[in-house]
Amino acid sequence: EVQLVESGGGSVQSGGSLTLSCAASGFTYSRYCMGWFRQAPGKEREGVAHIGRSGIITYAGSVKGRFTISRDNAKSTLYMQMNSLKPEDTAMYYCAADCNGYDGTWFTYNYWGQGTQVTVSS
User: Fold this and answer.
1) In the predicted model, what is the mean pLDDT of residues 6-21?
2) Angle formed at CA 6 by CA 27 and CA 4, multiple of 5 degrees
3) pLDDT digits (tens, 9 = 90+) for 63-95
4) What Cα–Cα distance (Å) separates residue 119 from each residue in 37, 61, 76, 100?
5) pLDDT above 90 for 30
6) From the CB of residue 14, how many other CB atoms can be counted at a distance below 10 Å?
7) What angle do CA 21, 27, 32 make, to 5 degrees?
């Protein structure tokens, strides 16, 4: 059974930093592309960062230069370092695995975690 468990969310002030983690199990992690999404209240879910099996990385324009996605295949863990956080970054952040296409806006995935909340106050 595929499991994705996010952690590291919390409340920070504007300009602060957080590091999210996603512990993966139930599949051969190194063979799968991974990504981070977020969803703010009343808004659609949006792709934030994507890392392919070969390590090729894609960022949404809104976070480029501030967020860094990385993966540790030995630990089957996905990370996202978030710096210079803004109130508009407030959202539930989700880890996703096993990309299966592209919907014209972002990659699509087969598996999802339960999310971790990030709240940025001004």
Assistant:
1) 98
2) 20
3) 999 999 999 999 999 999 999 999 999 999 999
4) 15, 20, 26, 30
5) no
6) 13
7) 70
